Amino acid sequence: MTSLFPVLLLTHITLAVGLLLPSVLLPFLLRRRGGEPSTVTRALMAVQGTGTLIIAGGLALTGAAMLWILGPELLTQPWLMTALVLYALNLVVAAFISRPNLRRMIGLRGESSDETWARRARRQRLVAYGMAGVIGVIGFLMSAKPDLW
Predict the structure, then answer these.
(1) Nearest to 16 by CA among 71, 86, 79
(2) Are 91 and 139 in contact (CB under 8 A)?
(3) CA angle (120, 114, 110) in 5-degree steps
(4) 141 burial class (0-12, 13-18, 19+ CB within 10 angstroms)?
(5) Are 51 and 15 contacting, i.e. CB atoms less than 8 angstroms apart?
(6) How many domains does the chain have?
(7) 3-state secondary structure of 77
């Protein structure tokens, strides 16, 4: 079973990043108001919509499988608990700030000015920078496994 662990770990990491990827990338792909979205933008919008539950389910399954292989004592590691809390905070930001604002930006047509849209887009990019920074910290914690306390 441990020979499958690298595949399980890679799958888990891919799903974890994939769950947040649309919220981080879409603010940069939506550079101008209106127009036809690119194929990549449409794919990210689809993942953000219906794919979220599928990805979250896969993430939960792979996480449980890794805990089964490595043992539950892994959950006593401060670096892992810190990373999990940061990931949960990132998910909250994605669900309650980033995604609703992106939907509003995509749905804006003629009811607001280009200046309003640009201001909202700039704000969304700042949120995405913050989320990307937190993802970087999580990556550091997972790879370095520092002794936090």
Answers:
(1) 86
(2) no
(3) 105
(4) buried
(5) no
(6) 1
(7) coil
Q: 149 lies in a domain? A: no
Tens place of pLDDT for every residue, the chain, 149 residues?
558 889 999 999 999 999 999 999 988 887 666 667 788 888 888 888 778 889 999 999 999 999 999 888 888 999 999 999 999 999 999 988 888 888 777 765 555 677 888 888 899 999 999 999 999 999 999 999 998 77
**Which amino acid is it at 55?**
I
Residue 21: inside a domain: yes
Identity of the residue numbered 107 = G
Tokens of 14: 């891919």
- Whether 56 is covered by a domain: the verdict is yes
Residue 57 sits in which domain range? 2-144
SS3 call for 35: coil
Contact 101, 117 (CB under 8 A): no
Q: Is 75 part of a structural domain of the chain?
A: yes
